[in-house]
Amino acid sequence: MSIIEVHGVRKAYGGRAVVDGVSFTVDEGEIFGILGPNGAGKTTTVECVEGLRTPDAGTVRVAGLDPVADRQEVTHLLGAQLQESELQPKLTVREALELYSAFYRHPADRDALAGRLGLDGHLDRRFAQLSGGQKQRLFIALALIGSPRVVVLDELTTGLDPRARRDTWRLIEEIRDGGVTVLLVTHFMEEARRLCDRIAVIDRGRVVAVDTPGGLIGAAPGSTVISFTPSQPLAHADLRALPGAVSAEVSGPGGRVVVQGTDETANAVITLLARHRITARHLRVTEAGLDDVFLDLTERAS
Amino acid sequence: MTTTATPSARPAPLAAVLRAETRLFLREPGSLFWILVFPTALMTVLGLIPSFREADDALGGRSVIDLYVPVAVLLAMIMAGLQAMPPVLTGYRERGILRRMSATPVRPSALLAAQIVLHGAAALGSAALVVAVGRTAFGVRLPGRAAGYLLALLLAVACVLALGATICALSRTSKVATAAGSVAYLVMMFTAGVWVPVQTMPDLLRRIVEFTPFGAASQALDQAASGHWPGAAHLAVVLVWTAVPATASTRLFRWE
């Protein structure tokens, strides 16, 4: 069952469409990623979901409600962590949790939440004294304090060190495991791949693909990379003729061969080698990263 | 639709906002000093000069300190509304604090309202302190027309808060708000009579100053202190200076 439905959303600033006909649906209980380069319209899209912006055209529904018209209701079931927002510098962690929990009908248990997010040792620290990671954990806590059904996390791990980022990923998985749907905006491929059940790739205000991370990678031409050093040189024509191959290169003093193609290409390489009784040293079959897929998708769109 | 009974232990959202903002307000020693301590301190320094405590025929038989009590009262309001408040409100916008709150069931206007109420309350508290110290330390008589004095006070507070809110609405950043507040603050201090009490200004200057919010408020407070009802013309001037900026600031305020 889908909990978020975005259909044909458009938003223009000064005549320039930042979001240009975006549609996707998010199922209850999944982590749905919005992936795209900077300035692709990711934040504007989720701001329409949060009810912070009114789309120029199209419809948005969160649990069947219009985030603009039913603003009050939507704020009770959708928690948000916003990009570039702060709290009052002298407000302590404890006071922030107290304040925000007073806004909701069914607030979560503050102590349990603080413990879960590792904030219990910093309750008396002021917002301005917190580290980047602590601030982000506090913002996650505030997004969850109203016991929402959906949380929107916008560029949550930007600016965090690798350890804090990994800790944050674990937290996001725990949120999902707790039954909360997560809409995650990111420009980190690794993050999207590791966390998301499904991803919408957005470029220049349009959705260019929606799929699982594996599906996105598998669907891309050249997603499988086969490399080996043959015991005897192979005819270039044979390599080019491999089914599904998008490129084949021979390089280096050892004549190392690198073929980009699909799973089918990998099988054909094995058959080719067997037919010519050639042995392959250092044979590697790897999957192209989401980075390659992403670059490919966004380049094709242009 | 929803039939959730609010647990009595849970504070109402607006009360929670006011409580949190009150705590934050009390964590600003600079603002507290300028609003609550400085006006009384200035009056005390002037009151310690013996000749300022003597009745002067040129002042209609009153002493300089008699005239400085309303001046110090207005000074407290100017400090609160024009010096302390504008950078706080613009900072809330600049740092995305208002934005964060707009993603909750509570409107961010609650935050602005709490700050306006707190600055107004601090200004009134400071005014009470000035009058009390003036009475106990220097024998300045309590306002002869208490209701009229209170009316003039409340109008003056509303006016200074409306002017401060307008500065926030028009300033893009808190730096601009601080600068604009400081300019307005110097002008208002002059018209409130901090350097020369309005009542002792040359005739022509006084007539001009009476059209400014604090020149008019100063006259209104002085009349009420002397036991008369404040002149309707003076109150009307303050009222206009309240209504116009209040309307303008609510229309012009940018939330982002």
Helices and strands, with pairings:
The complex is a heterodimer of chains A (302) and B (256).
Chain A: E1 2-13, E2 16-27, E3 31-35, H1 42-50, E4 57-62, H2 71-77, E5 78-81, H3 93-101, H4 110-116, H5 132-144, E6 150-154, H6 162-177, E7 181-186, H7 189-195, E8 198-203, E9 206-211, H8 213-219, E10 224-230, H9 236-240, E11 247-251, E12 256-261, H10 263-275, E13 280-287, H11 290-301
Parallel strand pairs in A: 3-7, 3-8, 5-6, 6-7
Antiparallel strand pairs in A: 1-2, 1-4, 8-9, 10-12, 10-13, 11-12
Chain B: H1 13-26, H2 29-47, H3 64-94, H4 97-102, H5 109-138, H6 146-170, H7 174-192, H8 203-209, H9 213-225, H10 232-252
Helix pairs in contact in B: 1-5, 2-3, 2-5, 3-5, 3-6, 3-7, 3-9, 5-6, 6-7, 6-9, 6-10, 7-9, 9-10
What does this protein structure show overall?
The complex is a heterodimer of chains A (302) and B (256). By secondary structure, chain A is an alpha/beta fold. Chain A has helices spanning 42-50, 71-77, 93-101, 110-116, 132-144, 162-177, 189-195, 213-219, 236-240, 263-275, 290-301; strands spanning 2-13, 16-27, 31-35, 57-62, 78-81, 150-154, 181-186, 198-203, 206-211, 224-230, 247-251, 256-261, 280-287. Chain A is elongated, with a radius of gyration of 24 Å. The longest helix of chain B is centred in the N-terminal third of the chain and has 31 residues, at 64-94. Chain B is elongated. Chain A: Its EC number is 7.6.2.2. Chain A: It is a peripheral membrane protein. Chain A: Residues 4-229 form the ABC transporter domain.
| Proportion of residues in β-strands of chain B | under 5%
How many structural units, i.e. domains of chain B? Answer: 1
Care to count the β-strands of chain A? 13
Average pLDDT value of chain A? 90
Global outline of chain A: elongated
Percent range for β-strand residues of chain A? 25-35%
SSE string of chain A, helices as H and strands as E? EEEHEHEHHHEHEHEEHEHEEHEH
* Annotation field: number of helices of chain A: 11
- Class of secondary structure makeup of chain B: mainly alpha
Radius of gyration based on Cα positions of chain A: 24 Å
The most extensive contact between chains is: A-B, 29 and 26 residues
Q: Could you tell me the mean pLDDT of chain B?
A: 90
User: In angstroms, what is the radius of gyration of chain B?
Assistant: 20 Å
Main sheet record of chain A: 6 strands, mixed
The largest beta-sheet of chain A arranges its strands as: 5-6-7-3-8-9
Family (chain A): Belongs to the ABC transporter superfamily. Drug exporter-1 (DrugE1) (TC 3.A.1.105) family.
EC number (chain A): 7.6.2.2
Membrane topology (chain A): Peripheral membrane protein
Protein name (chain A): ABC-type xenobiotic transporter
